[in-house]
Specification:
Strand content: 15-25%
Radius of gyration: 19 Å
Number of strands: 11
Largest sheet: 5 strands, mixed
Shape: globular
Number of helices: 10
Structural class: alpha/beta
Helix content: 25-40%
């Protein structure tokens, strides 16, 4: 799925703080990867959540015991993070400050249950999954949707249910109804992010317009969220395809001037691991512990994503059809 990093800054290794900072919530566009921490043209601040559901989370010995002995001994895990937009993961105070968001809170809470510390490295979205296979990271986050194709090479432990949606510039008459069939996009220009399920879906289905006797749609891929939103505001694209939660959040920010057109396809979202990783059982148990003790519910309530709650974490569930 999709939060994205520009990949243009030097990568930095940062040890994630035990308590997530809750500064001013800055609008960034949704889709592929603006990690600048400042919004594009028309951005505005809005009140940040003030509660800290992660602070009281502690180690659960029975869950921590599921980790491999070498991980328990080291006490750290390397996590590759694509940090791009609220409410998932973003930089409220700029890239030199700690990231915040739903995914940051869930990862921190899981680490506390497991009794380990996360060594977080910023990474561009499209590089994280291959880097898991090479052993560069132990786990990856970036709002990665569970798809049949990805399951061939990556293991997932799910923690929310998000998915694909569309948004247009507020007041647009080009596309006004919920997209239920991609033929509704024929003749339009769609903006989305590189290496995402959105790009894959649009590419795979591009022939539907010809089959319907209509003009094909055009897909423009952007490396930065800010560039995607600016293109929409300036009329260079007609519609954006990105995450349900991200587009819904964006549309709630008046300065963005976007309108959310609703859900197109739901996907489970999970922590990503190299195939056959010994970490999946422990992560699944940790997420389920957070669901059981109510921390999970409080995190989603904090970020306004309760509609994405799952009843239980799964390892490698099939893609939603």
């Amino acid at each position: 799925m999709s939060a994205r990093d520009t990949g243009t800054r030097p990568r930095r290794l940062r040890v994630a703080a035990a308590t997530v900072l809750l500064p001013v919530l800055v609008l960034t566009a949704c889709g592929s990867g603006d990690t600048s921490g400042t919004g594009p043209a028309g951005a505005q601040t809005s009140p940040a959540p003030t509660d800290d559901p992660v602070g009281a989370v502690g180690k659960v010995d029975s869950v921590a015991a599921l980790l491999p002995e070498d991980v328990r001994r080291a006490g750290t895990l390397r996590i590759g993070s694509s940090i791009g937009f609220p409410p998932g993961a973003y930089y409220p105070n700029g890239p030199d400050k700690a990231p915040a968001g739903q995914d940051i809170d869930i990862a921190e809470a899981v680490a506390k249950v497991l009794g380990v510390r996360l060594e977080r490295e910023d990474a561009s979205f499209e590089t994280i999954l291959p880097a898991l296979g090479s052993g560069k990271y132990d786990v990856g986050t970036g709002n990665f949707g569970v798809t049949t194709e990805r399951l061939k090479t990556v293991d997932f432990v799910t923690y929310v249910n998000d998915g694909q949606g569309f948004a247009v510039k507020r007041g647009s008459t080009t596309l006004t109804s919920k997209v239920t069939d991609l033929t509704q996009l024929c003749g339009l220009t769609i903006g989305t992010g590189a290496g995402t399920t959105f790009e894959a879906t649009l590419t795979a289905k591009k022939g539907v317009c010809a089959e319907a006797g209509k003009q094909p749609y055009d897909v423009k891929v952007y490396a930065e969220n800010g560039a995607t939103l600016t293109a929409l505001q300036q009329g260079r694209i007609d519609v954006v395809m990105s995450t349900i939660n991200g587009l819904r959040h964006q549309a709630a920010q008046p300065a963005a001037q976007t309108a959310f057109l609703g859900e197109y396809h739901r996907l489970d979202v999970g922590f990503a691991f190299k195939k056959g990783s010994p970490l999946t059982e422990a992560f699944q148990a940790a997420v389920n512990e957070l669901i059981k003790d109510g921390t999970y519910t409080r995190i989603l309530e904090k970020w306004g994503t309760s509609a994405s709650a799952i009843d239980a974490s799964q390892v490698n569930p099939p893609e939603h059809t």
